[in-house]
Amino acid sequence: MSIHAVQTGGQDRVTKRQSWDNWAGNLHSSPIEIFRPTTEDEIVALVQQAANRGLRIKAFGAKHSFSGIAISDDYILDLTSYDQIVEVDSVNGYVTVQSGKKLSHLSEELFTYGFAMEDMGDIAYQSIAGAISTGTHGTGATFGCIPTQVHSMRIITADGSVLNCSKDENQDIFHSARVSLGALGILSTITLKCETAFNLHAVEKPIALDEVMTNLDDFVDSNEHFEFFWQPNMQNAFTKQNNRTTRPEEPLTDWENFKNDVLIGDFIANNLVKVDRIAPPLSRFIRRNLPVTYREDYVDRSYRVFTSERKVKFVEMEYFIPRAAAKDAMERYRTFLQQTGIVPSMSIEMRFTAADDIPLSMSTDRETCSFAIHLRTHERYQQYFEGFETLMREFDGRPHWGKMHFQTKDTLMHLYPQWEQFQVVRKKLDPDGRFTNAYLNRVLGQIE
Ligand SMILES: Cc1cc2nc3c(=O)[nH]c(=O)nc-3n(C[C@H](O)[C@H](O)[C@H](O)COP(=O)(O)OP(=O)(O)OC[C@H]3O[C@@H](n4cnc5c(N)ncnc54)[C@H](O)[C@@H]3O)c2cc1C
Predict the structure, then answer these.
(1) What is the gyration radius of the CA atoms in the chain, in angstroms?
(2) What is the β-pairing status of strands 75-78 and 33-35?
(3) SS3 65
(4) DSSP state of 364
(5) Which of 325, 304, 194 is nearest to 242 (CA)?
(6) Is the pLDDT of residue 405 over 60?
(7) Of 111, 114, 142, 141, which is closest to residue 124 (Cα–Cα)?
(8) E strands in 345-409
């Protein structure tokens, strides 16, 4: 831990810096102080304190972003204890929750009230505010990203004032704040429009990648939620087809869940490259047999089907391209691997999302295919990720704000038709850059 002098009202106070790492372990910072508020008043007081001391302040939810979006060298708010359900409107399905609530806890509690989120991403470790701030998404051509589920919010702005926003109140702010990158203020409470709790019928099975790509539109349109993973060098993709059902739960056993999510999906599939090097015959056996034996058909609560455990630590880049470009992009990706000789250790993932109208949403204005690549933390990613990014830019790809990418304001602004609208709100709510950091300065520019 390093020692730093902090300017406080003309006097130097010597403070021990704290240590902050993200989940993947690829980012580190040494903030002056990490606070763990439990009430809105405490958050307001901390924002005001930061302002009085001329410091920057950022909140984090679960540190599950791979980009530097949540980093601060000044004040950090750890909102993991600001996590209560505040109000449930059973008639309209509006549920108001404190912003640090983890999706795993939220979805379990929602079910006890008879509600559910209409769609979720692959995991439920994130906080609701973190998921909203980066435009986190699941899959389903008729489903928007998680921020489209937001009905209203309370935001603490740079001078410590608290404002409500929704489609009816402070509409311009609401419009931009649903995917805010943490740049507009601290989200205090969030009201979600929930669905009546539902079960999903899940069919998870291997299908030849060529067949998936040939019939991609059929798979995407005939399922509410379709996605697939593909480990380069394998013939088959792992497909997931999830659809609402009125059938009662027939869940997988704990062992089956562990075997599918952790042992096969996470550990074996993502370590095959190592096995290639150490024991080629074993690798050939796994590649031949793994994809044909993995097949599941079950019914479970929505959130248990949408999300999985992730034990292997990795880093990720994810690009959002027009849905119509998905097949071309896959072709180009396979050629790119052949040409460079890169054999990634981890699989790719393709998902689909409906268009929305949120200024900085990766799906703004267009139906989207998201194409994600992964490598284990500490593997060399530069050549692979840069090459992939170059490829995705040919398709006007937009990077996930919470994942790795190398773009800047200059290369990003033309991809978002309402870019200026967001900047106007940012300047209005945070004129002095209280909530900015190096990452935001890079991707959004300095506040002018
Ligand atoms: C294993 C894994 C799986 C993932 N799967 C998916 C997936 O399926 N789909 C997908 O789209 N993404 C996925 N992601 C990315 C992840 O959803 C996003 O990075 C998300 O933002 C992480 O949420 P968090 O709570 O950890 O937020 P953090 O990383 O802690 O913060 C993200 C941003 O939100 C801001 N923030 C947090 N709380 C507040 C608040 N109260 N007020 C204002 N700003 C706030 C932070 O300052 C920062 O800017 C995955 C990441 C990992 C590590």
Answers:
(1) 22
(2) parallel
(3) coil
(4) B
(5) 304
(6) yes
(7) 111
(8) 348-353, 368-376, 398-399
Q: The CATH number of 85-196 is which of 2.60.40.1180, 3.20.20.20, 3.30.465.10, 3.40.50.300?
A: 3.30.465.10
**Residue in 136, 240, 360 to alter for ligand 1 test, most ligand atoms within 8 A of Cβ:** 136
Give residue 89's identity as a one-letter amino acid code.
Answer: D
Beta-carbon count within 10 A of 84 CB: 15
Structure-derived torsion over alpha carbons of residues 54, 55, 57, 63, reported in degrees to the nearest 10: 170
Q: How far apart are CA 98 and CA 232, in angstroms?
A: 41
Atom of ligand 1 at shortest distance to CA of 440?
49
Return the pLDDT at 127.
Answer: 98
What is the 8-class DSSP label of residue 89? Answer: E
| Amino acid, single-letter form, for residue 177 | A
pLDDT tens digits for range 165-180: 999 999 999 999 999 9
CA of 248 to the centre of ligand 1 (A): 32
Å from CA of 212 to ligand 1 middle: 30
Domain covering 199-399: architecture: 3-Layer(aba) Sandwich (3.40)
More confident residue, 448 or 322: 322
Residue ID of nearest Cα to ligand 1 atom 7: 121
Q: Where are the domains of the chain?
A: 3-78, 85-196, 199-399
Q: What is the pLDDT of residues 55-110, one digit of tens each?
A: 999 999 999 999 999 999 999 999 999 999 999 999 999 999 999 999 999 999 99
Task: Name the architecture of domain 3-78.
Answer: 2-Layer Sandwich (3.30)
The residue type found at 282 is: L
Token pair listed for 411: 């290369």
Torsion 170-174-176-177 (CA) sign: positive
What pLDDT digit, counting tens, does each position of 257-295 carry?
A: 777 766 676 666 666 666 766 776 776 676 666 655 567
Q: Given the DSSP bridges, would you call strands 11-16 and 28-29 parallel, antiparallel or unpaired? A: unpaired
Beta bridge partners of 315: 375
Question: What global pTM score does this model have?
Answer: 0.93
Asked if residue 122 has its Cβ within 6 Å of ligand 1, the reply is yes
Can you tell me whether residue 200 is helix, strand or coil?
strand
Between the CA of 287 and the centroid of ligand 1 the distance, in Å, is 33
Residue for token pair 């009125």: 246
